[in-house]
Write a sequence for this structure.
């Protein structure tokens, strides 16, 4: 399988969370082709809502930065992972920055899905994804459910499925590898 | 009431959020002599000023569009900044969440987060106004935006008078929750050009029509 990991740890250098993600990548590498993006090491701009990617250069973002490498790795993956420590009860702004930019992979035209309006696919297939998060000191069950529900919604718009949400303090990288191959 | 409004649209001063904010303030000014201050989060170099303004405000509203099912990255960056700061926080915090999708179901999941986030900050939660179907208001004829603008103005006036969002207008804004059954049934029967007029007009204007189905990252 081609697996892409988006590591949204905003801290640079060696952190518990990024060490955990590195171990996960190593665990995956036994049987898979893995690409890990440490977003804090990349030059990435925020989406500015200009819609150049929808109506001027369809499928191509206006920003000239490192994001196209991620777009390609996500859309060509068999599975991908959003990974981030929780900050203020949600995944990091850094991870959200690249998530917003993923609209480049979707088409502006509208369709009806689940009794709601959604944007149609630009690509034939979209990979399912997993979510790996590190809790904060005050994270509770309500926070976890909110995060999971929002990523579930994202999967509807991304024509995909959220296959699991795992916590770094409750799971080992090997559990993620197992979950990736058994959903 | 000392009101501070943060506009979290990545489109900055060209945003639909700015237009809605202006209508809200027009109504607010009908009932209050206080002039709300407005800050734009897309101006990233002003972050320290934003933090200071947030910490010094008494009542604060944050207006932004729904981006990939939650807050835009710049808004999350601001949330992290105010959450991690030791500075004082406003007594009261509320949100106006607007979206291009017509149905409010797209936004209700984030509303839960905003409520919890406000509790985390130990501010009083004023509420979250959810309004869908906002994209395109800058090119719509006045007949199509009249009711929306009138309601935002009324919302601003009510807010100045009571310090709350009007429950009646909130209920009105939140419709439809999902696409009405009849529309779901009719939608596939109508030509795509009707649903996608806005996109097609811009694709053609930009000479991008022929490339509209491009999939450049597929290997």
């Amino acid at each position: 399988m081609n697996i892409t990991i988006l590591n949204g740890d905003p801290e640079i250098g060696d952190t518990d969370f990024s060490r955990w993600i590195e171990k996960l990548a190593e665990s995956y590498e036994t049987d898979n082709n893995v690409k890990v993006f440490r977003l804090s090491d990349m030059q990435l701009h925020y989406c500015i809502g200009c819609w150049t990617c929808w109506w001027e250069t369809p499928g191509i973002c206006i920003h000239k930065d490192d994001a196209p490498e991620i777009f390609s790795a996500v859309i060509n993956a068999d599975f991908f992972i959003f990974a981030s420590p929780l900050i203020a009860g949600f995944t990091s702004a850094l991870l959200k920055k690249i998530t917003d930019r993923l609209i480049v992979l979707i088409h502006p035209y509208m369709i009806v899905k689940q009794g709601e309006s959604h944007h149609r696919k630009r690509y034939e297939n979209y990979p399912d994804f997993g979510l790996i998060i590190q809790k904060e000191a005050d994270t509770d069950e309500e926070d976890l459910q909110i995060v999971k529900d929002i990523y579930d919604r994202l999967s509807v718009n991304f024509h995909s499925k959220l296959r699991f949400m795992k916590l770094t303090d409750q799971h080992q990288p090997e559990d993620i590898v197992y979950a990736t191959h058994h959903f | 009431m000392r009101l501070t409004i943060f506009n979290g649209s990545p489109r900055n001063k060209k945003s639909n959020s700015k237009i809605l904010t202006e209508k809200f303030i027009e109504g607010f000014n009908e009932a209050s002599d206080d002039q709300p201050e407005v800050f734009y989060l897309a101006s990233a170099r002003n972050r320290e000023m934003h933090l200071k303004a947030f910490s010094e405000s008494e009542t604060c509203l944050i207006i932004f569009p729904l981006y990939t099912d939650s807050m835009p990255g710049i808004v999350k960056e601001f949330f992290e900044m105010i959450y991690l700061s030791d500075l004082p926080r406003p007594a009261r915090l509320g949100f106006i969440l607007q979206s291009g999708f017509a149905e409010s179901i797209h936004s209700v999941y984030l509303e839960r987060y905003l409520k919890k986030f406000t509790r985390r900050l130990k501010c009083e939660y004023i509420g979250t106004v959810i309004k869908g179907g906002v994209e395109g208001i800058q090119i719509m004829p006045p007949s199509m935006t009249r009711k929306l603008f009138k309601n935002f103005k009324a919302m601003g006036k009510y807010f100045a008078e009571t310090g709350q969002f009007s429950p009646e207008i909130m209920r009105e804004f939140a419709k439809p929750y999902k696409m009405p059954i009849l529309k779901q049934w009719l939608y596939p029967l109508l030509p795509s050009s009707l649903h996608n007029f806005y996109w097609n007009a811009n694709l053609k204007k930009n000479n991008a029509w022929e490339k509209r189905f491009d999939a450049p990252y597929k290997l």
